[in-house]
Every structure is written in C-alpha cells, then in structure tokens.
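Objective 1.3, modelling of assemblies. Example input:
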Amino acid sequence: QVQLVESGGGVVQPGRSLRLSCAASGFTFSGYGMYWVRQAPGKGLEWLTYISNDGSDKYYADSVKGRFTISRDNSKNTLYLQMNRLRAEDTAVYYCAKDSFYCNNGICHKWLDPWGQGTLVTVSS
Amino acid sequence: EIVMTQSPATLSVSPGGRATLSCRTSQSVSNNLAWYQQKAGQAPRVLIYGASTRAPGIPGRFTGSGSGTEFTLTISSLQSEDFAVYYCQQYNNWPPWTFGQGTRVEIK
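Predicted structure (tokens):
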C-alpha cells in the first residue's frame, strides 16, 4: 500500500537549519508530484511547497520562500525539505503528501492523498 | 490568493445526527475543491474531491455539494469515528493551494 514516512524533526534553535525527509513506498514515486504541509500546534493546515514529479517545477508559500527548499531523489524514493533560518513560528508538525489526481475529458481533479504521519519541528532556544 | 472560509468553527451534533459544514471561497473555484478529515493525533485524509466525488473507501454518509464559491459537506447519521476536524481545500488556482481554517465536529 502507499506509504509516506517523515523523519528529521526535532528541537532546533532559532536561526538554525533542519532537513526533513519523506520516504515513499507502494507507488511509482517518480510519477507523482509531492507536497509539504504543516500544522502549528492547535492550528489549521498550511500548504508550504510543491515539487513536480521530475523536480522541474517547485512552488513555495510566501511564508517560507527563500528559507525552505524542496527537493527529491527519485532513485531513493525520497522527498526532502531543507529548512534554513528557522523561526519560532515555524514550530509545527510537518506532513508530506502525495499528489493524487483524476482526469476525464480534459478536466483534472487534484488532491493530497495520502499524507504521512507527520514529524514535529520545535524551534526554541 | 483564494481565501477559504469555513463555518461554523465548531459544530455540536448528537451521535446519529446530521452535520452540515460550509466552505466559502473568495472567488470561484468551479468544482475544484476537496474535503479532508483529521482525527486527533492523526494526519488528514481525503474524503471528497471535485466538490462531490467521494474518495475510495469513504462511506456514503459523507456527501459533498456546491460549486463556484459555496460548498457544503454533509455527514448524515454521525458515527463515533466521525467526530473530528474537517478542512476544505481548493486546487483551482495554485499556487498557493489553500485550506479553510477547519470545522470541529464534536459530540453534543
């Protein structure tokens, strides 16, 4: 079955860096775009970044643009999120998610499914 | 950026009752809208895409409707496992992909 497993979270001081990983299995990883979404404690979901299946297209939320970098290694079936210059407000559970889609007669629907279990990043001195 | 507004923030419903959740978008997203369920301590999972198409394995008591700027998720005959937080998300105009702030469905 499709499975996504995040790792790399932890406690980090403000201004420092952290790299998250998302190991994918159960599907052809190189055929799908991937997302990172985060959820601050007690808050809602915030989309952060997206990468296309071959890595050629990347998009970022304004809140992380210039600080976070998404990448992937299709040979290792792994997605990454490099987080630099971390701030207290980056404290959250970070989820990776697979791009799922259905197209019919030229109309395509996209959604995030499945999601990994999440990894907690705490930015604190 | 398309802003998503969900209401109410919290909905109290008795087991076996019916829940009606609303999602409004700041501009038309056609039917390019998904609904997710998030149980406490778990990752979200998709319920509905295309505003009204149930994802595989989702029970028939979950019904999505609407188009344009107004959408509804109806949960009929609430089961104990349905008490959770529900989010809508648009994928019509991206980036960014945007989520509503969520509606918590709690036991009355």
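Chain A touches chain B through 23 residues (CB under 8 Å).
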